[in-house]
Amino acid sequence: MQQLQLHRVAEVTRPHVTADVIFVHGLGGDGRETWSAGPDAFWPLWIFEDLTTTELWMLEYPASMFGSANGALVISDQAKQVLDLLATHSIGTRPIVFVAHSLGGLLVKQLLRTAVELHKPDWELIAANARGVLFLATPHTGASIASIAAKFPFVSKATAQISANDPNLLGLNDWYQQNAVSRGLATHAYCETRPYLGNVIVDKASANPGVAGCVTIEFNGNHAEICKPPSKQSPIYAGARKFISDLIGDAPRPVAALASKILSAKHSGHLDQDDSYVALADEFENYTTAKEPRLDLAEKLRLGGKAHEIPRAIRLKEEFAKSFARNQLQSSSTQRYIKLLAEVDSRFNSHVYPAIVNGASAAETAALIKAWISDPIIEAHKDDALVNHVVLDRMIYYLTGICHIRWSP
C-alpha cells in the first residue's frame, strides 16, 4: 500500500530557488509512473531543467483515499495530512504551483480550502502562496468518478459510489469557483478526447473547473496519456511549462546574470581597457554564453547514450555554476576557472569528441576523458588542491550545458 510521501524530482541543491512546483497524481497512479511516458520521458525533470529557479516535488498518497465516510469525503481528512506534510518541507515560504492529474485535482482543491478555513498559520501560508493549479482531466463535478474507479479494482469501493453531482464535490467545486480569482489563483485545464479502456473517463464538461478566464483545452489522447507527454514538443508539456513560467517567472542563472553585468560595463567603457583585462572579459563572455544548438543538458546526454548520468550531471553543472558566479572578473579564482574551462574544452573537442563521432563506447569515452583530460590536467596543477576529478567533472557538465561540448555526433 502506498504511503503519504513527498519526493524531490531531482536531488540537486539549487542556490536560488524562488518557487515550488508540486505534481499530484490521480487515482491508481503514483509519484513517478503517472508522469512518465518512458524511461527517458519523465517530464517533471524537464520542468526542473527548463525552469532553473524552481524546486520540483512529487506527492504520493494512498490510492484508495477517495472513499466516502458517513456522507463526507475522506479527502477532507487526507487534505489535512497533506498540508501537514507540505509544511514539514517548508512548502508555503515561496510561490507554489500545483500540477494535478484526475482526482489529484480534487485533493488540491480540498487542501487549499482546508488551509483557508482552518486558520492554521503554516497551512494559511500554503494557500496564500499558491499561485495556480494546472488540472489534467480532473472530474470537478463528480461525473465519471465511478468510471475511473471501475478501472482500478483495488481502489475503495466507496469511491465508485461518488456519482455525478455528489453534494460534497459540488460544494468543493463551488468553493474553488468563488475563491480562485479573488485569491489570485490562476487556473489552467485540459481534458481528454479519446476513450481509455472503452470510455472517455473525464469529458469536457466535467473537466471544466468553471473559473472565469479558464478555457478547458481538448487534448488529443486518453485519460492515461494526458499526463505523459512524450517530448518537450508535446502540447501538454509546452502548455504546462508556459503556465508555470508565466506564474513564477524564471530568474536568470547566476553566471548569466554576472556575465550580463560585466559585459554591460565592458561595452560601456567602464572596464579598464588593458589588453589582458579585455581578453579576460572576452573569455568570460565565451564561457558564460551558450552556443548553438540550444539543446538542454539532459537532451544532450540522452542523445549520447548517457541518460543514467542526467541527475548527477545536473547537480554537478549547477554546483560549478554556483561556484563560478561567486567570483568577480578581477579575482584570481575566476581567471583560474576560465583557464581550466578553456583547457577542458580544448582537450575534449580535440581528443574525445572525434572518438565519439567514430562510435566510441561509453567505456572508451570514459577512458579517453581520464587519459586526455583528468589525469594530465590534475598532474599539471598538482600544487593546486582545488583541481581534482570532481571539479573537472563539474566543468565538463557545465560546458555540456552551455553547448561547448557534445556527447553525440
Plain-language structure description:
The strands form 2 sheets. Strands 1-3-2-6-7-8-9 form a 7-stranded mixed sheet, with helices on both faces. A two-stranded antiparallel ribbon has the order 4-5. It is α/β, with parallel strands linked by helices and 409 residues long. The protein has 2 domains: 5-248, Rossmann fold, CATH 3.40.50.1820; 254-401, no CATH class. The chain is elongated and about 75 Å long. Helix 3 (104-118) crosses helix 7 (167-179), helix 10 (254-267) packs parallel to helix 13 (310-325) and helix 13 crosses helix 16. It has helices at residues 43-50, 75-88, 104-118, 121-129, 145-151, 157-160, 167-179, 204-207, 235-248, 254-267, 275-286, 297-303, 310-325, 332-357, 362-380, 389-401, and strands spanning 5-8, 19-24, 54-60, 68-69, 72-73, 96-101, 130-136, 186-192, 217-219. It has 16 helices and 9 strands. Helix 1 (43-50) links the parallel strand 2 (19-24) and strand 3 (54-60).
How would you summarize what this structure contains?
The chain has 409 residues and is α/β, with parallel strands linked by helices. It is built from 16 helices and nine strands. The protein has helices at 43-50, 75-88, 104-118, 121-129, 145-151, 157-160, 167-179, 204-207, 235-248, 254-267, 275-286, 297-303, 310-325, 332-357, 362-380, 389-401, and strands at 5-8, 19-24, 54-60, 68-69, 72-73, 96-101, 130-136, 186-192, 217-219.
